[in-house]
């Protein structure tokens, strides 16, 4: 379900219309039963500029956003949905601050981190998905994310990252590894790429023998050519992706352990769902508060 920003603005003019729209697309249930009163029906009632479910028999009340990342937010719901939409479209935090006319950027930073974590959870649960297959070409490359110094005397050691991208579908994967040994690379390939795929790599010896594992294999010698003159094989798509990722990391700053994994997860999430990122986030709200508690 593709939602444009104009659609979103028209649907979220008020808190009431926003709630009605979220019910329409089944992000919020249209009804709820009270667990304290033998499943007696609850009613949606206004509460502190938003709504909550309230039982007309025992008066038990629960937030409509209970157990979701929206729970206890101080931001108005239409404004928060705008923020999520802007994140889905890769607007910078500075631009979002301007668009939403916010005084502080901290809340935007906090929400971007929550959404990044939610991306990580979603992609972690979909790790069984493989890319490639007969008739598909997958480029594979490794990149070293060099160590950097942050704060006083603090060194953050960055790992090798092995990445692969299907040039037909643009589906991709990224895996952090301690080393790029043959055993490590073969395990990743078996876990992430369907047999019968044509795999293009550099001439690193860790990739030797892929033909014996059910794959077709072409190589390019990066010390001599960007494109193999004999076969046309190249890894330019995955290398361009590395460049984009490293620029993104420089812009955001890698300031604590785990940030790299979250950035890769966000990239994979947005690459997979494209124009449906915003809707996928909304559909993933159930129990999301607990899921991102790490």
Question: What labels would you give this structure?
Answer:
294 residues; alpha+beta; Nucleotidyltransferase, domain 5; 5-stranded mixed beta sheet; 4-stranded antiparallel beta sheet; 11 strands; elongated
What is the strand and helix layout of this fold?
Layout: H1 5-11, H2 15-24, E1 33-34, E2 40-47, E3 50-55, E4 61-63, H3 77-88, H4 93-100, H5 106-125, E5 137-144, E6 148-150, E7 154-156, E8 160-166, E9 172-177, H6 182-192, E10 198-202, E11 216-220, H7 236-252, H8 259-273, H9 277-283, H10 288-291
Helix pairs in contact: 5-8
Q: Describe it for me?
A:
This is ISXO2-like transposase domain-containing protein. InterPro entries: IS1016-like_transposase, Tnp_ISXO2-like. It comes from Anncaliia algerae PRA339. With 294 residues, this protein is α+β, with helices and mostly antiparallel strands. The chain has a domain of 137 residues: Nucleotidyltransferase, domain 5 (2-Layer Sandwich), CATH 3.30.420. It is 38% helix and 19% strand. The protein contains ten helices and eleven strands. Strands 9-8-5-10-11 form a five-stranded mixed β-sheet, with helices on both faces. It has a four-stranded antiparallel β-sheet with strand order 1-2-3-4. β6 and β7 form a beta hairpin. α5 packs across α8. It is elongated and about 70 Å long.
